[in-house]
Design brief:
single chain, about 475 residues, four-stranded mixed β-sheet, two-stranded antiparallel ribbon, 23 helices, 8 strands, about 5% strand
C-alpha cells in the first residue's frame, strides 16, 4: 500500500494519545463545535438540508443530530452533523499551505459513536471520542502543512474525507488492512472543486461540503467492513493515481510525525463568524470604529495589508451576491466592523448588505500583501494571521495603522480566549437550554473525569431535542 496510506492507518490503530493539553483542547473544541451547530439551526437554509434522504426513511433508535429530534442512519447523520457544525463558518480552523476546519470531522465521529452505542450495542466512551477528534485533527492538519490542494483547484474538504474515513473505519471495528482499503477509496474519490468558494460561483455549497465529505467517509468505512478490496497505489500510480491526475504530479507528503500537534495549536473562531484570514482585520476595524463612525462621509481611502493567502482567497471587488459571498470578502467584513463596530452572522444577511454605506466603503479600500505577514503566516513557530487597517480622510488626516498578528482564538491568546469561548457557547445554545442547564453543560466540558467516562450515546442524548427535562442527564 502507498506509504502515506499505511502511515495514516497505523496512526489511527496503534498510536496512543496521552497529552493532556490536546485532550483538554479537544473538550473545548467539542463544546464549541456543538454550539456552532445549534446556532446554525436558526437558519432555514441549513435546516432544509437535514433529515432522511427521502421522506419516511427516519427510524427510531438511529444516530441523533444535535438540536433536532432526528434519528438517522450513520451516513446521513454524519452529513447532518457535519453540515450544522460548518454552516456558519464559525468552527475551529487550521491554516497552512492548505487550510480547513478539522472539527468538520465530528460529523463522522459523533455519528459513528452514537451508532455504536444505540445500534451495535458496543458503545464507546467520550474519552475515545476525544482521542478520535485529536487523530482526525492531526491527519487533516498535518496533510495540510505542505500540500496545497487549493493551488490546483481542489477544495480542502478532500482532507475531511480522508481524515474521517480513517477515523470512522477504526471506530467501526475495521482491521488495519480494511482501514487502508477505505483510505485508498477516499483518495480515489478525487476532490471537490473550489468552484463554490470563488466568484462568480460563490454559494451555499461551501456550508454543506464538509458534511458531504464526512458522510462519504462513513460510507467508505462501512464498505471496507464488508471486505471490499483496496488499491495499493491509489496515490502514486503513474498516469492514473491521485498525484498524477489531480495534483500536477506533485508528491503528497506528511510534513511531520503524527501525534497531537494540530489539536494543541488549532485556532478557535471566537469573536467573529468570518473567514479566518480576516479575523485579525475585523479586530483592527473594531478598534478603529470609535474614531471613524461619525466621519464615514469624510473617508478618502482605507488601506488593508494582509498575508498572501488573504489576498488570494478573500480580496473581492464588485457585487456580492449572497451570504456565502460576503463572509469570504475581506473588504465587506472590514466595512461592517468599521461601520457597525461588530460582526455577527446577521451582518451577512440581505437586509444589512443593502445598506449603501457598505459598498461605498468597500470601493475605497486598497488591499495589498505585506511580505512580512506572509512569512509570519507560514512560520511553524508563529502560525500568525496578521492584518493591518488604516483609514485616510479627505483633509489629509488619518488614523493610526492598527495591526493585529494573532486572533483571540490563537494558542498564544488561549488564556484570553477561553472565557470568551465559553461565553460564545452559552449564547449559541440559549434558545435550547435554560441558564442552569447551560452552566451545567459548561462545567461538564471542563471536567475531564466526568466527561471522559460518559458513554457517547448518553452524551448525544443531552443534545437531542426532546420534551423531557435534562436534569437527570446533567446530574
Amino acid at each position: 500500500m502507498d506509504q502515506i496510506i499505511s502511515e495514516l492507518a497505523d496512526y489511527v490503530h496503534n498510536h496512543s494519545i496521552h497529552d493532556e493539553l490536546a485532550l483538554q483542547t479537544a473538550r473545548w473544541c467539542l463544546m464549541d463545535s456543538l454550539g456552532c451547530g445549534l446556532l446554525a439551526l436558526n437558519y432555514p437554509g441549513c435546516r432544509k438540508l437535514l433529515g432522511p434522504v427521502v421522506p419516511g426513511a427516519q427510524f427510531n433508535g438511529g444516530c441523533r443530530v444535535p438540536g433536532t429530534s432526528l434519528e438517522l442512519d450513520p451516513v446521513k447523520a454524519a452529513f447532518d452533523i457535519g453540515t450544522i457544525v460548518r454552516w456558519l463558518d464559525y468552527n475551529d480552523t487550521w491554516l497552512a499551505a492548505e487550510w480547513g476546519h478539522p472539527s468538520d470531522n465530528l460529523g463522522a465521529i459523533l455519528a459513528c459513536a452514537d451508532y455504536l452505542g444505540r445500534v451495535k450495542k458496543t458503545g464507546i466512551t467520550m474519552r475515545e471520542v476525544l482521542i478520535a477528534m485529536i487523530k482526525a485533527h492531526e491527519i487533516q492538519g498535518v496533510l495540510a502543512l505542505e500540500n496545497s490542494f487549493n493551488r490546483v483547484g481542489l477544495d480542502h474538504v478532500l482532507l475531511v474525507r480522508v481524515a474521517s474515513t480513517a477515523i470512522a473505519a477504526q471506530l467501526l471495528g475495521a482491521t488495519q488492512k480494511q482501514t487502508e482499503a477505505a483510505l485508498s477509496h477516499a483518495w480515489i474519490d478525487g476532490g471537490a472543486l473550489r468552484t463554490y468558494r470563488h466568484a462568480p460561483n460563490t454559494g451555499s455549497r461551501k456550508s454543506w461540503a464538509a458534511g458531504d465529505a464526512t458522510s462519504r467517509a462513513v460510507r467508505l468505512a462501512l464498505i471496507s467492513l464488508t471486505g471490499e478490496m483496496g488499491y495499493q497505489t491509489a496515490l502514486t500510480a503513474p498516469r492514473w493515481g491521485f498525484q498524477d491526475v489531480l495534483f500536477k504530479s506533485q508528491t503528497v507528503k506528511l510534513a511531520r510525525p503524527l501525534d497531537s500537534y494540530v489539536m494543541e495549536n488549532v485556532l478557535f473562531k471566537i469573536s467573529y463568524p468570518a473567514e479566518f484570514h480576516a479575523q485579525t482585520a475585523v479586530e483592527c476595524a473594531l478598534q478603529l470604529h470609535p474614531q471613524i463612525k461619525d466621519r464615514l462621509d469624510e473617508i478618502e481611502r482605507v488601506e488593508l495589508e494582509t498575508q498572501e493567502p488573504g489576498v488570494r482567497i478573500i480580496d473581492k471587488q464588485g457585487p456580492l451576491n449572497n451570504y456565502a459571498d460576503r463572509d469570504h470578502c475581506l473588504q465587506y467584513m472590514v466595512a461592517i466592523g468599521l461601520i457597525f463596530g461588530n460582526l455577527t452572522a446577521d451582518h451577512y444577511q440581505d437586509q444589512i448588505a443593502a445598506d449603501p454605506r457598505i459598498d461605498e466603503l468597500r470601493a475605497k479600500m486598497k488591499v495589498r500583501e505585506n511580505p512580512d505577514f506572509t512569512v509570519a503566516y507560514y512560520d511553524a513557530e508563529q502560525r500568525a494571521i496578521p492584518n493591518s487597517v488604516q483609514v485616510w480622510f479627505r483633509d489629509g488626516s488619518h488614523t493610526e495603522r492598527v495591526t493585529v498578528h494573532f486572533p483571540v482564538g490563537h494558542r498564544r491568546r488561549r488564556e484570553e480566549g477561553l472565557p470568551l469561548l465559553r461565553q460564545k457557547f452559552a449564547q449559541a445554545i440559549e434558545g435550547f437550554y435554560n441558564p442552569d442547564e447551560i452552566a451545567n453543560l459548561i462545567t461538564l466540558f471542563g471536567s475531564s473525569d466526568r466527561l471522559d467516562r460518559m458513554p457517547a450515546e448518553e452524551f448525544m442524548g443531552i443534545f437531542h431535542k426532546q420534551p423531557a427535562p435534562l436534569e437527570k442527564l446533567l446530574a
